């Protein structure tokens, strides 16, 4: 019986990680920020599910995970903010991402010496070089790192701050392993924009940042097709699968994985929605920013080879998400 600690279990990606872990027979200790979030997740599963909870109100607080890690065999760390509502770059994004990662790694080393594997949710944000823009001659892979500086991170661009938070958090993790020589290896999972069906507790007002882009197309609030600023995407179920497969794959030790299905445009998304949900005609925009520019490419071959990921298509992902969203229209 393997006991897995899943941090940030009430999140979009983590909800799917939790589902897979329980289906595969893991005993799961899940960290959440409040008892109400624990109660919601508990209600999704049978009473005899091998699921318990630890309340961690602030992942950036000193020693936040010291108690939670005790007695577990593996750690999946997904807890980190993803939003662009930034008033204080350090307190809103940088500290929670960086200190949360530091806290879970120190806690695991100090209080769970039996742990051999830690999986960390990172992001394409830690791979992409924003200064290069479209970069049509380049193919992004795990070999790339975002060169963002701290001075850029604390500037006024929320997207840059978010990308920096993921970059610095991941670099902190790799630095920790190199300097501290813990008993465990780490694996980082680096997805771009993540879409797909939602398991976590969500309402039209609280829909996660990535799915909110599709929700705006479906609910009629987006009058025109928007520009596609970062044209790489993946389905949440593949991201969750990658986390769990990385736990069980020796080849994944001390590796990072770019978990990406391919590229998209919002024009394609709009077309998919209208094709499969004709009742939304008049709400979903058909005119707008249609770009024919050549953009960078993406390479997912390492994740296919090592983790056995078979990527869900853009159409299936958008349709499965929209089936949920239409209930809100």
TrEMBL record:
<dbReference type="InterPro" id="IPR001509">
    <property type="entry name" value="Epimerase_deHydtase"/>
</dbReference>
<dbReference type="Pfam" id="PF01370">
    <property type="entry name" value="Epimerase"/>
</dbReference>
<dbReference type="InterPro" id="IPR036291">
    <property type="entry name" value="NAD(P)-bd_dom_sf"/>
</dbReference>
<feature type="domain" description="NAD-dependent epimerase/dehydratase">
    <location>
        <begin position="4"/>
        <end position="255"/>
    </location>
</feature>
<protein>
    <recommendedName>
        <fullName>NAD-dependent epimerase/dehydratase domain-containing protein</fullName>
    </recommendedName>
</protein>
<keyword id="KW-0560">Oxidoreductase</keyword>
<dbReference type="GO" id="GO:0016616">
    <property type="term" value="F:oxidoreductase activity, acting on the CH-OH group of donors, NAD or NADP as acceptor"/>
</dbReference>
<dbReference type="InterPro" id="IPR050425">
    <property type="entry name" value="NAD(P)_dehydrat-like"/>
</dbReference>
<comment type="similarity">
    <text>Belongs to the NAD(P)-dependent epimerase/dehydratase family. Dihydroflavonol-4-reductase subfamily.</text>
</comment>
């Amino acid at each position: 019986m393997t006991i897995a600690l899943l941090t940030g279990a009430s999140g979009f990606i983590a909800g799917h990680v939790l589902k897979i872990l329980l289906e595969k027979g893991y005993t799961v200790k899940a960290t959440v920020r409040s008892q109400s979030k624990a109660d919601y997740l508990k209600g999704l599963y049978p009473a005899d599910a091998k699921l318990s909870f630890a309340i961690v109100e602030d992942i950036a607080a000193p020693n936040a995970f010291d108690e939670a890690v005790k007695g577990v065999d593996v750690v999946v760390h997904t807890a980190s903010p993803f939003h662009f509502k930034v008033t204080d770059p350090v307190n809103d994004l940088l500290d929670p991402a960086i200190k949360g990662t530091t806290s879970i790694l120190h806690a695991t080393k100090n209080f769970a010496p039996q742990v051999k594997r830690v999986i960390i949710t990172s992001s394409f944000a830690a791979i992409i070089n924003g200064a290069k823009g479209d970069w049509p001659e380049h193919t992004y892979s795990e070999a790339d790192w975002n060169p963002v500086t701290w001075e850029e991170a604390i500037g006024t661009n929320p997207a840059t701050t978010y990308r920096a938070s993921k970059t610095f958090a991941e670099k902190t993790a790799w630095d920790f392993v190199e300097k501290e020589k813990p008993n465990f290896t780490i694996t980082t999972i680096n997805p771009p924009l993540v879409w797909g069906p939602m398991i976590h507790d969500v309402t039209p007002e609280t829909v996660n940042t990535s799915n909110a882009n599709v929700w705006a197309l479906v609910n009629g609030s987006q009058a025109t097709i928007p520009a596609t600023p970062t044209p790489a995407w993946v389905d949440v179920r593949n991201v969750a699968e990658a986390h769990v497969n990385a736990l069980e794959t020796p080849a994944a030790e001390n590796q990072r994985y770019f978990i990406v299905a391919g590229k998209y445009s919002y024009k394609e998304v709009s077309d998919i929605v209208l094709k499969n949900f004709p009742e939304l005609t008049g709400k979903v925009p058909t005119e707008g920013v249609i770009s024919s520019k050549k953009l960078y490419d993406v390479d997912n071959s390492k994740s296919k080879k090592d983790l056995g990921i078979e990527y869900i298509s853009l159409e299936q992902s958008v349709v499965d998400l929209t089936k949920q969203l239409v209930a809100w229209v």
